[in-house]
Amino acid sequence: MQGGELVIRLPGRTRSPETTILRHKEVHHFFFLPFREQPIYSTRAHVFQIDPNTKKNWVPTSKHAVTVSYFYDSTRNVYRIISLDGSKAIINSTITPNMTFTKTSQKFGQWADSRANTVYGLGFSSEHHLVKFADKFAEFKEAARLAKEKSQEKMELTSTPSQESGAGEIQSPLTPESINGTDDERVTPDATPNSEPRTEPTQNALPFSHSSTITKHWEAELAALKSNNAKLTAALLESTANVKQWKQQLAAYQEEAERLHKRVTELECMSGQTNVIKSHKTELNHTIEELESTLKTKEEEMERLKEEVENANQLQAQRDSLAQKLQETETRNKELEEQLTEVEHRLEASQLEQEAFRKNLKTLLEILDGKIFELTELRDNLAKLIECS
């Protein structure tokens, strides 16, 4: 179980090669994959494809977030990106060394697949998932590049010995006659020893010792021929095994040639779309320039807003200072008002005291005037008395 996917092996199926089943938790549909491919990393994302008509707009291929997995084929040493929406494979992309995964925003990334002749886009729930998916893409892309280089080196090494052994075959070809001997060589060892005694009654008989020497000679020749026959048979078997190996290599080369031919065809198809891609690139450049201009304007506006915010902060500080001073002034004003009220009370009391003092003074003046009038009358009377006396 990896990334919400269940991978099981079906031993009872007659499908060849053995297969695995990929099943999502949300939907109970099945998608058969070769057993040699295993998921090595899974995540969830919204899947998009570029509009094949406009080559500009994104077309969603899934209504909701689906599981997107990296698969590794250990037999072919190939990495693939696969995603299913129900029983439909919406992504089936083989990673090649010339692919590039581009992060276009904090939560969106894309890559172009020339074999599928489309551009895939993935929308993630967070930037962390996007960064991890991009890191895995770069890692598997590098692994695909190293695997391709090793495969090319292996092809070069295997092609060199096959050519040398082929040249050796031309110089010393193996034929049935060279393995089993010619008809004359096969008959001679048996016929010659028997032919000599048959001719003895009509010719002079050879000594018995000479006939025994000839027989030993032919027996030695026969043993040498059998030894050569065994060696040649072993060489033939080895050559047959080499021929099988060369046939397998030839089949692999033919398969690679077919793949390269398809690739050339795809590139030719892509070259026909060069003008469309160039126009699309020009439009993208114009759009980028407009976006850069807009971004520059926004940056200037942001700088202006920053200055205004700084000025507002200064004004706020001044306002706080003035508010504090105003509060202090109001407190001082209240104190002065209280002092003024107290002075007014004192002034009223002083005025009352002055009024009372005036009244008392007026009374004293009236009394003084009466006393002065009485003294004047007393003087006048005294004066009259003096005059009369």
Automatic annotation (TrEMBL):
Look up the coiled coil feature and give its residue ranges.
215-353
Write out the annotated subcellular location. Answer: Cell projection, Dendritic spine; Cytoplasm; Postsynaptic density
Q: One cellular component GO annotation, for this chain's record?
A: cytosol
Q: Where is the composition biased (Polar residues)?
A: 172-181, 191-209
Q: Which InterPro entries match?
A: Homer, Homer_EVH1, PH-like_dom_sf, WH1/EVH1_dom
Out of the domains of life, which is the source?
Eukaryota
The ranges of region (Disordered) come to 149-209
User: Which Gene Ontology BP terms does the record give?
Assistant: G protein-coupled glutamate receptor signaling pathway
- Keywords, sorted A to Z: Acetylation, Cell projection, Coiled coil, Cytoplasm, Phosphoprotein, Synapse
Recall the GO molecular function terms of this protein's record.
G protein-coupled glutamate receptor binding
Q: Where is the WH1 domain?
A: 32-144
Question: Hey, which family's this protein in?
Answer: Belongs to the Homer family.
Name recorded for this polypeptide: Homer protein homolog 1
Q: Which organism is it from?
A: Albula goreensis
